[in-house]
Amino acid sequence: MAFNDAVDQLKNFDVNNIDFDKIGVWPLPAKIIVIIILVVMVFCLTYYVKINDLNQTLATEQAKEVTLKETFKTKSFESANLEAYRAQMEEMNTTFTSLLSRLPSKTEVPGLLEDIGARGTESGLTINGVTIEQEKVAEYYIEVPIKINVDGGYHDIGGFVSGVAGMPRIVTLHDYTITKKKDSNVLNMQISAKTYRYKTPEQE
Q: Do the strands 126-132 and 141-152 form a parallel or antiparallel pair, or are they unpaired?
């Protein structure tokens, strides 16, 4: 009976003449519908204002989690191989020191020219000239070009080149030209040699 009364009240309720000031005398089903609508509106508003922000925060934190996991993997790998890295660094430092010791200092370059001349004499060549050209400054070293002009036989020139390549100091050979002298079996060789000096911080 109460249900039928509620249905009759809802039928007699004029939705076109709603007075919110008299909500207290509205039929119960109308009140329930209004409450449901209000609850849905509050829920939707809460979702878009609060839950949506939380979802964005969650997505950000999940992205950070992935980054942190990758960082952790990298750090773990480095920690596990720390001793190997240290040994490798020591080996590289030893190799660098060894190579550095083979580079002539500025005061040793004239002695290097004498050594090149001595290699030519030992090989049976006639030394026409061994001269230093303009130095070229690079980022970490200074290149010292040397122009060499010698006369001699084919095998003598080969022995000279091998002797220069085997010198304790680092010397590289480039851009050679060999010509035969007129009315003679003697060959003339002009070749560019390069040695290198380590550039100290004071020279930067």
A: antiparallel
- DSSP character at residue 108: G
pLDDT tens by residue, 74-108: 888 777 777 877 888 888 878 777 776 666 666 67
Q: In which element (H, E) is residue 117 found? A: helix 109-122
Q: How confident is the model at residue 1 (pLDDT cuts 50, 70, 90)?
A: very low
Q: Could you say which DSSP state residue 140 is in? A: S
DSSP 9-57: HHHH--GGG--GGGGGGS-HHHHHHHHHHHHHHHHHHHIIIIIHHHHHH
Written out in words, the top-level CATH class of the domain with range 104-203 is: alpha beta
Q: Name the CA dihedral angle for 109, 178, 187, 163, rounded to a multiple of 10 degrees.
A: 40
In this predicted structure, the answer to whether residue 11 has a pLDDT above a threshold of 80 is no
In this prediction, residue 58 has a pLDDT band, given cuts at 50, 70 and 90, of confident
Task: Please tell me the distance from the alpha carbon of residue 110 to that of residue 107, in angstroms, as a whole number.
Answer: 7
Domain regions of the chain by residue span: 1-80, 104-203
